[in-house]
Design a protein that fits this description.
The chain is mostly helical. The chain has helices at residues 2-23, 30-56, 65-96, 102-140. Helix 1 (2-23) packs parallel to helix 3, helix 2 packs antiparallel against helix 3 (65-96) and helix 3 (65-96) runs antiparallel to helix 4.
């Protein structure tokens, strides 16, 4: 079952990377696309890890913390990436090609940051519920 979950997470990561790559278009070089994707996913990973840590810091998880944290983090990074990165990539491409002004790009980036913040707040409470459920299952065993 765990192998199936990791396979699904792998597919989600591939979808996130390919969507972002596609939205960057053909005008940008492969190096620039690669850097954009790597930095974007790294930022998502850091944000999801921070939200996970904040949401579970008041819960004493004991030994069950490592596997649950990895599973939750690796599952939500591609989801957040799919929601945010393709749209940011499209705007970035337009900015680099001169089809968009800096001010419009800044407004779109702020809008995407607000959407990401809302998603992270929802995940904050969701992570807490997930970990509390896992902790209850462990304590019953």
């Amino acid at each position: 079952m765990l192998l199936f979950i990791y396979a699904c997470i792998f597919v989600l990561n591939l979808v996130a990377i390919l969507l972002t790559y596609r939205f960057l278009g053909t005008d940008l070089g492969k190096k620039e696309k690669g850097i954009f994707i790597i930095v974007g996913i790294a930022v998502m990973y850091l944000l999801v890890t921070l939200v996970y840590w904040l949401s579970t810091k008041s819960i004493n998880l004991g030994q069950s913390m490592g596997e649950g944290q990895n599973l939750i983090t690796f599952a939500f990074v591609p989801v957040n990436s799919i929601v945010i990165l393709p749209f940011l990539a499209s705007s970035y491409k337009s900015l680099k090609m001169g089809k968009m002004e800096n001010e419009i790009f800044k407004r779109r980036a702020i809008l995407l940051a607000v959407i990401l913040l809302v998603v992270l707040v929802i995940e904050f409470f969701y992570f807490k519920d997930i970990q509390t459920g896992i902790l209850n299952l462990v304590n019953r065993s």
